[in-house]
Amino acid sequence: MLRHNFAAALRQLWRNRAATLLNLIGLAIGLGCFVFADGTASDLSGRGAAAAYRNVFLMVERQTGGASAPDNPGTSVLLAPALRAELPAGYRVARMMAPFMGKTAVRADNTKLFMQVSYADADLPRMFALPGASPDALAEPFSLVLSKAAATRLFGAGPAIGRTLAINGIDATVTAVIVPPPAPSPFRSMTGDFDILASWDIFEKTNAGLVNPSNPNNWFDFYASTYVAPPPGGGQSAADLDARLAGFGDRHIPKSSNSAIFLATPGYSMLSTGANMAVRTDITGIPASTILDVLGIMILATAAANYINLATAQVLARAREVRIRRIIGATATDLLRQHAIETSVIIAGACILLALLAALLLPLAGVLLGGNLRVIAADRLFWLHLGLAVLLTAFIAGIYPALLFASLPATGPVQGRRSYSWVRSALTGLQFASAAILLIFVLVANQQNRALKQAGFSSGSDPVVAIESDPGSSMGSFRAALRAIPEVRSVGAAQYTPWGAGESWDQVRRDLPGAQPITNTIVAVNEDYFPTMGIKLLAGRELSPLHGGDGPPPADGSIATHVINVMIDRELAGNLGWQNPADAIGQPLYMPDTGPMRIVGVTESRPTSVVVFGSRGGLYWLDPGLSRVTLVRIDGAHISAALAQIDAAWDAAAPLAPEKREFIDDIFASAYQYFTGFTLIVSTLVALALLVALAGLAGMALEVARSRQREVAIRKMVGASTWDAARLLLWQFARPLLIANLVAWPLAFAVTQGYRSLFTVHAPASFWPFLAALCGTLAIAGLTVAGETWRTARLSPAEVLRAE
Amino acid sequence: MITLSGLHKRYRTRELETTALNDVSLAVGKGEFVAVMGVSGCGKSTLLNIIGMIDRPDAGSYQFDHIEVTSLTEAARARLRRDRLGYIFQNFNLLEELSVFANVELPLLYRRVPKDERRRRVREVLELVGLQARARHRPGQLSGGQQQRVAVARAVVTDPELILADEPTGNLDSANGEDVMQMLQTLHEQGATIVMVTHSPSHAARAGRIIAMRDGLIVPNNTLEVV
Question: What is the CATH number of the domain that holds B72?
Answer without folding.
Answer: 3.40.50.300
